[in-house]
Every structure is written in C-alpha cells, then in structure tokens.
Amino acid sequence: MSPATVDRDARFRLGIVGHGMWPSTYLIPGARQLRDVDVVAVCGRDSARAATFAAAHGIPHSYDSIERMLAVEDLDGVIIATPPGQHEDAVRAVSGFRAAVLCEKPLALDVESARRIRDLLVDRPALTGFTLRWQPLFQELRETIGSGVVGAVRHVRIRYLQSSAATSARGWDWHFDATDEPLGVVSDLGPHAIDLVRWMVGDVTQVTAFARTTIAERVDPEGRRRQVTNHDDADVQLTAASGATVSLTISRVAPDIGVPGGITIEVLGAEGWIRMDSNEADVVIGTASGIHRRPVPAMSLTDGAGAQIRDFVDSARGEPRAELPSIDDGYQAQCVMDAIAQSLSRRESVTLT
Fold first, then answer.
1. Distances, alpha carbon 267 to alpha carbons 39, 150, 251, 304, 349, in Å
2. For residue 210, what are the β-bridge partners?
3. CA contacts within 13 A on the Cβ side of 50
4. Neighbouring C-beta atoms of residue 9, cutoff 10 Å
C-alpha cells in the first residue's frame, strides 16, 4: 500500500480510537505540538462519551463506528488507544482503508491475536506504541551499550516500579480484571520492559516468571468489593539469544516515595557496567578508567508524545526513521508475554521457539 500522505506540506488528518486517560493526557497534547497535524475525529463504542470527550478536547467530530469515521473523514492516520482486548477489531476495521496505524501496547491479549494484527497491517505504515523508545535517557543507554564501552553484555537488571496501586485507595477497574488484562501489571508494564530488553540485547529465548497479587480486593465505583483476578507484582528472569541474562522486577504496588515511579537499569558487561535511573538526568558508566557520567536532556511526557507522533506521521509519509518500534516488535513482545503466562501456569521455565 502506498504511503497515506506524500505531500509534506499537507495537513495530516489524524483520528483517535479510544477516549480514555492516555489519549487525554498524552496523545492529544503530543499531536497538538505538531503544526502539520490535525486531530479531526475521535471514535468510541459509547457515542455519548465520545461526543463529550470530543467537546472537552476541541475535536471537531466524534463517532461510534470506526468504519464510518474513516469513510467520512478520509484520515491519513489512526491511533488505536482502546483496551488491548479491542485492538484486533479496531485494526480489522482500519484495514479496509488507507490510513497508517499506531497501535498502543500490548497489541493484543494473546499471541494469536497479535499475529493476526501484524498480518492485517503488513501492507501499510504501522507502529507499536512503545513510548520509552522516544525518551532520550533510554536512547542514550542503548547507544552506550552498542558502543561496546563495557564490552559484551552479560547481565541486565531492570526495576520498573509504580505506586499507582500501592494501597486499596486505588479502586477497582478493568486493570484488575484478568479478562481485560490477563497478567495484570505484567500485561500493563511488561511489554515496555520486554521491548527495552529486545531493543538493548536482542531476542528473548527463555523465560522464568513469578508473580503475586498483593491487594486481593478493591472497591469499584458502585461501592462493591471486587476480587482482583490478576497480578500486581512480578519477577521475571529472561535469557537472550546473545547469552545475556535479564532480571526484571515489575510492580504497581511499590511504596509511594514522592515520585510517580520509575525505571532503573543496570548493565553488567565484560569490561564494565552502566547504570541509569529514569528519575535522574544521566547515564553512569564504570570502566577500568573510572566512573563517567553522560548527561542526557530531560524530555517531558508531552514532548515524548510529540516526538512519537512526529515519527508516526513521517512514517506514514514514507520517511520512516530507523529503530522505530514496528508492529512486528509488538508481536515479538507478545510472544514473550505468552511465554511468561505459560511459565506462571506451569511453574517452570519456558523456551521460546
């Protein structure tokens, strides 16, 4: 399929599928940083909510049908930001039109659905929304690893911690339901961490996972106590094809220490180590010549969204930048997620084929 837009001076007509927190706080503010992008429509299953959302964000049109939105608006690109269980239906609807696609992570709830999504989008510009790839700190970390300054990578330790559900004051919603988020925090934060692992050290070949539910019940908006049916805390051991091993800790019940959470990564190489913390402004490198710091410019959430959507628009126009997260990257991450699910179920290590 030809690129959605070929005239760089033309306005890029963007539609959003989904009207939750992420479009409101991230996608729409990011898109509005770009002078050549217009958010012209939003679509949601609930027409009243979609209309209210559109009015609140100054979006001209709202729809409860993706097909109708695309037929009427002739969109250049669509961002799919619904819960993951709805992604495949949304992609199937878009596949009959010319629009480029940015699909939020995870692509799906299981690997078969992710494979179908990948196949439906094979003929068009399409990205997976692994937002961390657009943050300068992670870009600098990857570049440092690739430079060979610490030699071959032997081990990586990642701690991805949030306090968003640290107490029972956080009420019950779909994030605590295994029907919508099968592995809980692993389904939520895990795809980002797995993509970072693949981006830094290559494909994953073996998985051993442990997970738990720390807070067993939460109160829903109607005041009813609901059982949490997925996990809020996990440890995952990964082996990469390169031979590097990875220890991954993921939690959304980490103690609230006054910051919204963060990611710390420690890399042990044959000739030194690298350390970064997403709440700090540099990458630290230790080698035989001493300890060195590489300052990295900070990037706000909105600026990160703007950079992500800029690359999406350029890809739709036939000018993709190298190292963008493809739909296949989303599929490969889902393969690892399925291996984690198998490991939790079997209580044993799982080898990816």
1. 40, 9, 20, 24, 23
2. 235
3. 21
4. 5
- In order of 241, 247, 251, 338, 341, the CA distances from 351 in angstroms are 11, 16, 24, 11, 12
> Hey, what are 230's tokens?
């997925």
| Cis-peptide, bond into residue 106, ω within 30° of zero | yes
Q: pLDDT at residue 7 above 60?
A: no
Could you give the CA distance from residue 45 to residue 48 in angstroms, rounded to a whole number?
A: 9
Burial pattern 315-330, b for ≥16 Cβ within 10 A else e, equals: bbbeebeeebbbbebb
User: Contact at 8 Å (CB) between 304 and 135?
Assistant: yes
Question: pLDDT tens for residues 140-187?
Answer: 999 999 999 999 999 999 999 999 999 999 999 999 999 999 999 999
Q: And the tokens for 327? A: 């739909």
264-317 tens-digit pLDDT: 999 999 999 999 999 999 999 999 999 999 999 989 989 999 999 999 999 999
Q: Does residue 98 contact residue 4 with C-beta atoms inside 8 Å? A: yes
Radius of gyration from C-alpha coordinates of the chain: 20
Q: Residue 300 burial by CB count (10 A; 0-12/13-18/19+): exposed, middle or buried?
A: exposed
Residue 58 amino acid letter? G
What is this structure's pTM? 0.92
Q: Cβ-count burial of 264 within 10 angstroms (0-12 exposed, 13-18 middle, 19+ buried)?
A: middle
22 Cβ neighbours under 8 A, 6+ residues apart: 81, 104
Give the Å distances, CA to CA, from 302 to 94, 131, 223, 313. Answer: 26, 11, 34, 16
Q: Cα–chain-centroid distance for residue 327?
A: 12
Q: Which residues pair with 248 in a beta bridge?
A: 158, 236
Quote the pLDDT of residue 10. 83
